[in-house]
Design goal:
By secondary structure, the chain is of the alpha/beta class. The chain is 38% helix and 17% strand. Residues 4-18, 147-155 and 278-284 have low confidence and may be disordered.
């Protein structure tokens, strides 16, 4: 957010410049008075008072959403303040209301400019998203995370935290050819904007990850997000009340994102369409398979670009075939027990051993290939001791 002041009156003297800055600071004080805790306010006032010997008649103040890794209270206060400044000139607005809220909430949309004044100073607020912020930090959104916004706003109704899952394709213990297939698929997907447009399909891709617990389904999702620099939206299906809410939540996800619905087999309604038909009248209070399928089939096409959907399950055989049909889930990825090749990756990650430098590796690899052991179990073992031997 970049408010900048642009004086309308005589600006030739230092005094007038100082006045404009003072006016700006007073406006800030008022804003902070209204919305900030007292301790934070007095700290900021001291800072502002000491701040500058003005040299220019223009001042740009940058208020980032984040202050270090924390959310910035000044940004939040500015956001609330700007809601009061919405005028007939405002071109776009976000309007929303959750079931729990009594009133509608209106907020401004990124990209919008708001003109403001204080005393004799003109102010212009630009609500911008910097390219740097957009692409460098991968976020994990979920309905439980802090800082939920409003339906309809980008990322609204979702709280977010920075994704600090260190998993990458390099650290993922997986058959190298399977890994390459996924990376190639993601790359192809990214490059195919024009292709999707030409064939009249939504620019989205669906992946089904299936396999026993601890084989790296969540790690693969994090690796995909880190690779693509896409945000993750984690949806807990059981917390969604009905298809309508499902639709609203999904429409508030942003472009360049991965929507994750984990353990889809645990949601009974999703398993079997027959059962759903029988219970159609009873299922109004839940998310139904047809609700999900409708959404996957087309709803998204009108609502965004570069979307990836990932379903995970430990029991693929329990899912309704309708959900697994090609075109819905474009790629089915089997995450399975560790192989000797996967073990090499883990040994390199955890012990820093390059390849097969240790005399025991060959023997262990044979054991790994002859039994069912998950990468999670092996990782635990490899973390037990600093002594490699
Ligand atoms: N393929 C893998 N490569 C590297 N590490 C892995 C892999 N699979 C599991 N791990 C390790 O085990 C931990 C748990 O794995 P993860 O949560 O990704 O498995 P999952 O298949 O999603 O399990 P669940 O089905 O229980 O959610 C990870 O944090 C990671 O340390």
């Amino acid at each position: 957010m970049f408010p900048s002041s642009d004086n309308a009156f005589s600006l030739s003297t230092l005094f007038s410049v100082y006045a404009s800055i003072t006016g700006f600071m007073m406006l800030f004080r008022k804003m902070l008075n209204d919305f900030m805790p007292m301790q934070l306010r007095s700290y900021l006032f001291r800072l502002l008072d000491q701040l500058f010997t003005p040299k220019s008649n223009n001042l740009t103040v940058i208020i980032d959403e984040k202050f270090g890794s924390e959310s910035n209270h000044v940004f939040e206060a500015a956001e609330i303040y700007l809601r009061k400044k919405i005028s007939p000139d405002t071109k776009q607005l976000c309007v929303g209301k959750t079931t729990k809220e009594k009133h509608f909430t209106i907020s401004i949309v990124k990209g919008e400019e708001i003109f403001d004044s204080f005393e004799n100073s003109k102010m212009k607020w630009n609500y911008v998203e910097s390219e740097e912020n957009k692409f460098n930090e991968v976020k994990r959104y979920s309905k439980d995370a802090p800082g939920r916004g409003y339906y309809g706003s980008p990322g609204g109704s979702w709280g977010s935290i920075t994704l600090d899952h260190p998993s990458t394709f390099d650290t993922l213990a997986m058959d190298p050819s399977a890994k390459k297939k996924i990376i190639d698929d993601l790359e192809r997907f990214l490059k195919r904007k024009e292709f999707y447009k030409r064939v009249g399909k939504a620019w989205k891709r669906g992946y089904l990850l299936y396999g026993p617990p601890g084989t790296g389904k969540s790690s693969l999702i994090a690796a995909m997000a880190n690779y693509l620099k896409f945000d993750i939206f984690d949806l807990e299906l059981s917390s969604v009340q009905n298809n309508g809410e499902f639709k609203r939540i999904l429409l508030s996800t942003t472009n360049r994102s991965i929507l994750v619905i984990e353990d889809i087999d645990c949601n009974a309604e999703v398993r079997d369409r027959e059962a759903e038909n029988q219970e159609r009248n009873m299922s109004r209070g839940t998310v139904t398979l047809s609700g999900i399928l409708n959404f996957i089939d087309g709803l998204w096409s009108s609502a965004g670009d570069e979307r990836i959907i990932v379903f995970t399950t430990n029991h693929k055989e329990q899912l309704d075939p309708a959900l697994l049909r090609p075109g819905r889930m474009d790629m089915h990825i089997h995450m399975s027990y560790c192989t000797s090749l996967g073990f090499r990756t883990l040994v390199s990650n955890y012990l820093g051993l390059d390849g097969l430098n240790h005399p025991l590796c060959e023997e262990i690899e044979k054991l790994v290939d002859s039994t069912e052991v998950t990468p999670a179990e092996l990782s635990e073992e490899l973390m037990q001791d600093d002594d490699i031997d």
